[in-house]
Amino acid sequence: MPSIKKTKIKKPKMPHQKPGKEEEPENNSDSEDEMNTESHIKSLEKLKKIDPDFYNFLEENDENLLNFEADSEDDISEKGDEDGDQLHVPGPITGDSDESDFEDENAKPVQGRVTLKMVVQWQTDLQSEGKIKLATITTVIKAFNAAMLRATSEDGTSTGEYKVEGSSIFNSVIQMCVLYLPAAIKKYLGMEQSGKDPQKCKHYVKIKGPLLAYLKDLLKLLSSVTSDNILTVLLKHLHQMSVYVACFTSISKQALKKLISLWSNSEETVRVLAFLCILRITRNQQTALLDLVLKAMYLTYVKNCKFVSPSTWPGINFMRRSLVEMFTLDLNISYQHVFLYIRQLAIHLRNAIVVQKIENRQAVYNWQFINSLHLWAELISATSNKPQLQPLLYPLVMVITNTIKLVPTHQYYPLRFQCVEILVNLSKETNTFIPVLPFLVEVLTSYDFNKKHKKVSMKPLDFSCVLRLAKSQLMENGFKDSVIERVYGLLLEYTANESHSIAFPDITLLAVIQMKQFLKSCSVSNYTKKMRQLLEKIEENSKFIEKERAKISFGLSEDKMIAAWEASLRVKGTPLLTFFENWNKVNKIQKRKKITKNDEIAGELPMIKRAKIADSEEKIKKPENKGPLVLFPSDSEDEGDHFKLGEGTEDPAPKKVKKKINKKKVQKKVLMPEIDSIPDKGDVVQDFSASDW
């Protein structure tokens, strides 16, 4: 056989390889790889002795980098490139994307980088039973500043002394400051005694600079947060720091600006906490800030009460009550503001009366004007036992009464009822006689309730969030129902408040005459029934007062004796007042149902209209031509009673008892929850527990 020569297979030339230049033999490359491997192993052994921490880091994160000898020839052939050279394949990357969340305990710390160990140590220092060091507080404030720089900077880096990297470190730093820093500052300044001014403390000068920086950062954080839960936590913290905020006028103004914004349009809990912060900051610096705060809060209130709906009413009521609280801090300063704002309302009203234009009337007949009247009436009522604001009662009443007279048409009956309600509350709280009855009885005499309606509405119109009615609404029967309901309620409330007065028969005389005229002219039984009932109660109370007046022996000029007699009669009780209290309980239940929307829920469920017993008996006796359809069939029906169905066909009718049972079954589905179980949304400020924070 011919001998076969063993020839060495040459590798193809690569494009980058120069022509005519052959590759080096494989033996040389293998020997060089072995030498490189040995040198790497030696250098790694040397690294292990010099820097064991870094070697451990490499060993944990990339084992393949250290295991050169473990690679077999098969591994090299599989991992080699086109030239057969060995390639290093790094191990899988382990760990979270957030470096600080999973820290290596043995890793070398970066200069200025905040770690969890450092945060734990700072917390321990802040909670120490001994003296709190200034260096600890300053360091914690610097860490908080670094966290804020990370949150507010575009690239997430901070240029300060410390660096906060990762969300876990950020959260731990914020949590540490919120929970432990206020108590540490208080202990450092020696403010264990409540009510002590920080500026009078011995060490205040040393901590003034870091404290100012911390409060600035805290306000930045408060402005950048949108979550209600986080805002709640930060506002509780700010309330604790309010004593120190009041030490810096510039910081106080910035804080109040943000807090007033939160107070006016935020979630309920956030509103309450923002108001508590405003109150505390203002009281700590009352002479410098009260004027500015009262003006800013009133303008914000007017701005945010432009539109009224069932959803916005609670917020408007809360703002009004909290504003009354702010104005009562110093009534001498408040007098100037209240006088100015009532005068502005009077000027708008005068322009509307003198210049008969739509623009001028619209400046008065709007919710901002009415809510302002509500505010000042509530403030004067709340301070009725103090003399400062009582001179403003008369001009306010004149503004309200002339607002009613400006456009006394049927369309503005809801606005009239709003103003009358304000006057009734003013008269009750200030114990001042205000002639309200003419504005209510005028509605009964000026409108024709016998006029037939052109539209039918299922429910009475709700006047609580309306000032002006459309012409189409005036044609509905629900309009007349609502008017009678409101007139009845306001007449009853006002006369009940005056029922103990010695002049009650004289006060109600003209109203009684006009109510009798209404009963003669009105032919709608539902309306006359309610008014006749009220008239009887008023006349009964008048007779009661006349009997009691017959027993007195003092003269009408003895004011103190008359006041004592009226007070004793109020304690004893009057027939009209007793009737009003019972009616008011039912009325409150109905209002709660409206708030909880029980009527809407019940409207979605199937309901069967109850028929009167007399009507049902007549229907059973009278034959009715129906189709061959049988409703509520029963085996135990009486043979004597029949419905005539179709032509001559008869089908036994169900018993009345059976019908009642079916009605009861259906009615169980429609039952509303008990009144005690309905949540009563009362005063938010009173219900809020201060011990929570």
From TrEMBL:
Taxonomic lineage: Eukaryota, Metazoa, Ecdysozoa, Arthropoda, Hexapoda
Entry similarity comment: Belongs to the NOC2 family.
The protein, known as: Jg7187 protein
Major subcellular site: nucleus
Residue ranges, compositional bias (Acidic residues): 23-36, 74-84
Keyword Nucleus applies: yes
Origin: domain of life: Eukaryota
Compositional bias (Basic residues): 1-18
Pfam families: Noc2
Keyword Nucleus tagged: yes
InterPro entries tied to this protein: ARM-type_fold, Noc2
GO MF: histone binding; transcription corepressor activity
UniProt keyword list: Nucleus
